[in-house]
């Protein structure tokens, strides 16, 4: 969980940097998460599965997740080219999507999947979801 916090904190700092395009920030987020899972796939799979079972009683994880959602909503609201809408709901969807896709890419994707291509597509997906036009 400490590694996840480090990755997410660094990614949120990138996303808050208005000089860095959101696409670059999302690339960094997915790249870091995938790298973290790849570093020790057996351990991260076990911890991911365990954390999902404990999610309803794990207030620490839920508090962190809620904090990430609030920060992400603030980041979206501050970016001039992010579309209008409910940024908190958008952030909930983005957090769940990011968490699920990064796990899937390492643990459950077909072996022939090109992870760098999948990371790029995931970053594009989030960028297109939040940006106008």
| Order of H and E elements | HHHHHH
Task: Indicate the proportion of strand residues.
Answer: under 5%
Mean pLDDT: 85
Q: Structural class, from secondary structure content? A: mainly alpha
**What percent of residues adopt helix (DSSP H or I)?**
over 70%
Write the layout of secondary structure elements.
Blueprint: H1 2-16, H2 22-39, H3 41-54, H4 59-78, H5 87-107, H6 115-130
Helix pairs in contact: 1-2, 1-4, 2-3, 2-5, 2-6, 4-5, 5-6
Describe what you observe in this structure.
The protein is an all-alpha fold and 133 residues long. Helix content is 78%, strand content 0%. The longest helix has 21 residues, at 87-107. It is globular. The model is unreliable at 53-57 (pLDDT under 50).
Quick structural summary:
This protein has 133 residues and is mostly helical. It has six helices and no strands.
List keywords for this structure.
mainly alpha, globular
């Amino acid at each position: 969980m400490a590694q996840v916090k480090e990755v997410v904190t660094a990614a949120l700092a990138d996303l808050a940097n208005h000089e860095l395009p959101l696409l670059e920030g999302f690339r960094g987020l997915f790249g870091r998460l995938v790298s973290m899972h790849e570093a020790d796939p057996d351990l991260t799979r076990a911890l991911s599965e365990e954390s999902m079972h404990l999610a309803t009683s794990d207030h620490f994880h839920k508090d962190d997740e809620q904090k990430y959602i609030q920060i992400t909503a603030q980041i979206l609201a501050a970016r001039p080219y992010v579309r209008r809408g409910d940024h908190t709901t958008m952030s909930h969807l983005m957090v769940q999507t990011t968490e699920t896709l990064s796990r899937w890419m390492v643990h459950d994707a077909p072996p022939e999947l090109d992870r760098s291509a999948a990371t790029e597509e995931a970053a594009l997906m989030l960028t297109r979801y939040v940006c106008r036009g």
